[in-house]
Specification:
Blueprint (H helix, E strand, L loop, with lengths): L4 E4 L9 H10 L5 E6 L11 H10 L7 E6 L7 H7 L3 E5 L6 H10 L3 E6 L17 E5 L15 H10 L4 E5 L7 H7 L3 E4 L1 H4 L4 H16 L2
Parallel strand pairs: 1-8, 2-3, 3-4, 4-5, 5-6, 6-7, 7-8
Helix pairs in contact: 2-3, 5-6, 6-8
Protein name: Ribulose-phosphate 3-epimerase-like protein
């Protein structure tokens, strides 16, 4: 199983102070910053776009921070170049948002970013099996995409187990309701990239929370 990567979701941060919030997470030991992009079409909520990512990247240089861009958008092909120019490191599109999956993966790689594919809770893991040889990551949503602060959906874990069994070296991300109360379930299933929003940003000690999440994943790797 690949190494643990902890990716605090900036959706849970203070949007009036994004620079400070992102830097705080990096100082606390986060591996990636998870950036939720919502367009108000694919999901009902609306968050930020490439211009804001460009501003954040201006304060957190490439190589010093990794931007995991979770694209909850319709027509994900449209935004690849914009997010590459904005400084995105990984462009994770939703399987359900396109019919041209392989072409999109190729476009993402051509733009200089890693490619990820996300699946909603009701989408079976099998839909991405043929794509994995081209993908850098698969994201298994553990809540319905579009809003933060939802409860973790344990019934999504068989999909993580299935993916880990078939693809032992794949980065498998889980997103939604992750905290110290749910990390062991996700880690035992085989997830190694952990997105946590309120579980980190609202923790009394975010550094301790990030370390504890990482330890839970690493403990599973030793089994």
């Amino acid at each position: 199983m690949p190494e643990a990567k902890i990716a605090p979701s900036i959706l849970a941060g203070d949007f009036a102070n994004l620079e400070a919030e992102c830097k705080r997470m990096m100082k606390c030991g986060s591996d990636w910053l998870h950036i939720d992009i919502m367009d108000g079409h694919f999901v009902p909520n609306l968050t930020i776009g490439a211009p804001v990512v460009t501003c954040i990247r201006g304060k957190l240089p490439k190589g010093e921070s990794f931007f995991d861009c979770h694209m909850m958008v319709s027509d994900p092909e449209r935004w690849v170049d914009d997010f590459a120019k904005a400084g995105g490191d990984l462009y994770c599109f939703h399987y359900e948002a396109t019919t041209e999956h392989e072409a999109l993966i190729d476009k993402i790689h051509a733009a200089g970013m890693r490619a990820g594919c996300a699946i909603k809770p009701k989408t079976p893991a099998a839909v991405v099996f043929d794509l994995v040889p081209k993908l850098d990551m698969v994201l298994v949503m553990t809540v319905e995409p579009g809003f933060g602060g939802q409860k973790f959906m344990k019934d999504c874990m068989p999909k993580v187990e299935e993916l880990r069994s078939k693809f032992p070296d794949l980065d498998i991300e889980v997103d939604g309701g992750l905290s110290m109360d749910t990390i062991d379930i996700a880690a035992d299933a085989g997830a190694n990239v952990i997105v946590a929003g309120t579980g980190v940003f609202k923790a009394k000690d975010p550094k301790e929370a990030i370390a504890a999440l990482r330890a839970a994943v690493n403990k599973r790797q030793l089994k």
